[in-house]
């Protein structure tokens, strides 16, 4: 929460003695000094030099400030004349560095939210497109485990795979030889080359409906035992 301490200042910009004007309080002539002020407003974040002018009338004889309601038409006339002569400071707003930082921060937050929504949607769109229509060169980030023998499993971690062939009910993928560390799988981008690892055949139907990579043909019970797709990336 930001607490604003608004300061209003009336900056004197012009003054003059009201010639041939009588003080409504002590009836002395030529004793009223009129001062013209320009209003400034400082919120701490924005400094606003307004174009609002006001005035005071002070009698130098009876040492009294004459309230606005007691101003005679003659005082009003001199006030208007002095106002018209005043060299006012150019009205305008100045924004503090904090205000600019705040604006930049809000813009960044808005951009971040927009970008997150956009990339989440792009990712979801990619995933749907690939599941519906797997195509050569689509990439899949897969966490997988292979069965080395009937009783031995080998967890191979996370690696990218590329779709090499799509034919009939079969998709053939080839794994990348490098692993993606677990702390880097969010937002990981697939390598463009280096897909020289193991080759697996997977069932297109199961891939589409269950988002699963299960090996279509297992030789002697060996091969891919378990696979989970972390992300889908179109070419
Ligand atoms: Zn007076």
TrEMBL record:
It comes from the Bacteria. The chain crosses the membrane at residues 97-118. Keywords: Membrane, Transmembrane, Transmembrane helix. This is Zinc ribbon domain-containing protein. It comes from Aquimarina litoralis.
């Amino acid at each position: 929460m930001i607490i604003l301490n608004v300061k209003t200042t009336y900056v004197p910009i012009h003054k003059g003695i009201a010639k041939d004007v009588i003080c409504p309080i002590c009836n002395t002539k030529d004793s009223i000094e009129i001062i013209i002020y320009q209003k400034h407003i400082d919120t701490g974040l924005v400094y606003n030099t307004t174009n609002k002018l006001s005035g005071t009338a002070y009698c130098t004889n009876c040492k009294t400030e004459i309230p606005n309601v007691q101003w005679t038409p003659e005082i009003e006339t001199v006030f208007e004349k002095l106002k018209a002569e005043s060299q006012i400071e150019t009205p305008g707003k100045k924004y503090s560095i904090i205000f600019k930082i705040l604006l930049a921060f809000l813009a960044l937050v808005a951009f971040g939210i927009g970008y997150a929504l956009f990339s989440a949607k792009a990712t979801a769109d990619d995933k749907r497109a690939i599941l519906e229509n797997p195509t050569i060169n689509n990439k899949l980030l897969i966490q997988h485990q292979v069965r080395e023998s009937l009783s031995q499993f080998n967890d191979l971690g996370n690696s990218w795979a590329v779709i090499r062939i799509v034919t009939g009910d079969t998709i053939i993928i080839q794994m990348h030889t490098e692993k993606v560390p677990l702390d880097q799988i969010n937002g990981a981008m697939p390598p463009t080359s280096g897909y020289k690892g193991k080759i697996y055949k997977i069932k297109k139907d199961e891939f589409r409906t269950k988002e699963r990579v299960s090996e279509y043909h297992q030789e002697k019970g060996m091969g891919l035992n378990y696979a989970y797709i972390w992300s889908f990336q179109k070419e």
